[in-house]
Amino acid sequence: MISPMAVHVEGTGAGRITARITTPSGIETRVTTESNYPLDHSATPWLPPLLTAGMRKGWDIAFDGPVDSTALRGASGAQKIFLDWYPKRFREVSISAEPARVVTGATGVGCFFSGGVDSFYSAITESDRITHLIFVHGFDIDIDDESLAARALAGARESAAELGTPLIEVKTTMRSAFGNRLPLDWGYDFHGSALAHVGLALSQHLSTVIIPSSNCLEELAPWGSHPDLDPLWSSGTVVFEHHELELHRLGKIRRIGENRTAMNHLRVCWENLDGAFNCGRCAKCVRTQIGLAAARAQCATFPEFIDVRAVRRMNMRSRDRGYLKTALAALQESGITDADLRRAVNTAIRRSYWTPAVFYMRVAGSRVSQVIRLRLRR
Ligand SMILES: [Zn+2]
Q: How close is the Cα of 290 to the center of ligand 1, in Å?
């Protein structure tokens, strides 16, 4: 019989929690999460990421400490969703843990805040009830990139101060020490349960945690954070809410375009080419810049002009196509008739239809060349 993935929660300081995780083959990893707020030292915060990892690898999971009983029930629901989405990649696993019931009396409402379009939109529109914004270093910002983390954190601190909300600062090795090493796909599999880990770790302060949506209703597809999945990570003390499904991205950009704080601190770039805060060249930057132009919003954190060459060349997912078509119409309505930009957006839209075909040809091509190489070897 294969032994399970064993999880041992180690006692550390108030604002620091560590789990020692031992895989069935005996490889040991330590994951540490720390914050300027005291954290939950039970095994509960470790359940979502370890369940996701266990299902992806086909490993049963054994916790040596009590896990919240509501979270354990939710985990069965999460397993059903993953198996439904990814029947070939995920496997049903068993969880061995002592069920516990914890009452903390916390009443805070937290909202994850990376400083991007989705998080600014949720932070602004739900500001009446949000009591804390949550900034995480170690997810979209590489754990070793201290300089980018410092700049992003400074922006998040200023934004939180201007929005009048305290900022919970979290740093975690969940992605670098664990998710990336197995490896797990960050977008499709892991980021939602990694966010849930942080939310559950804040159970002494928060009773609700808002996860800003990545996609609107018509764009919904299997994805690590999803309105069907996120609430299932809730415990008896912390409830997760996936926020905003009605409004599409351009609508969100229009809304945050009216907010001075957002326009002074917006941060969407993950590539940070040449150390730039928003490089203005990656697909995410360029998509956002087009939306900002269509919304006639002036944002201080982007290059002044849109790089039309970058627009033409950007890598697009098929779900971005609708966004760009809407943006193109909005540019026209806003009286922006820059012919080069319109041509570049149209080229990007046309190319997006080709992307799956080119990908297939590349895959097929590499198979053909492999066969040729094998024949030559004989
Ligand atoms: Zn960029």
A: 13
Specify the 3-state DSSP secondary structure of 192.
helix
CA of 202 to the centre of ligand 1 (A): 31
Distance 196 CA to ligand 1 centre (A): 26
What's the pLDDT score for residue 355? Answer: 58
DSSP secondary structure code for residue 11 in this structure = P
Which residues in the chain show pLDDT less than 70? Answer: 355-378
Query: Domain ranges in the chain?
Result: 5-100, 268-360
CA of 269 from ligand 1 middle (Å) equals 4
Bridging pattern class, strands 61-63 and 67-68: unpaired
Instruction: Mention every residue, 6+ apart, whose C-beta is less than 8 A from residue 177.
Output: 29, 30, 31, 32
Predicted confidence at residue 16, as pLDDT, reads 97
Query: Rounded distance, CA 60 to CA 6, Å?
Result: 9
CA 25 / ligand 1 centre spacing (Å): 39
pTM to 2 decimals? 0.91
Omega cis (within 30) before 183: yes
How far apart, in whole angstroms, are the C-alpha atoms of residue 190 and residue 225?
A: 8
Q: What is the token pair recorded at 177?
A: 């020490």
**Strand (E) or helix (H) holding 310:** helix 308-313
Distance 148 CA to ligand 1 centre (A): 13
How remote is the CA of residue 165 from the centroid of ligand 1, in Å? 27
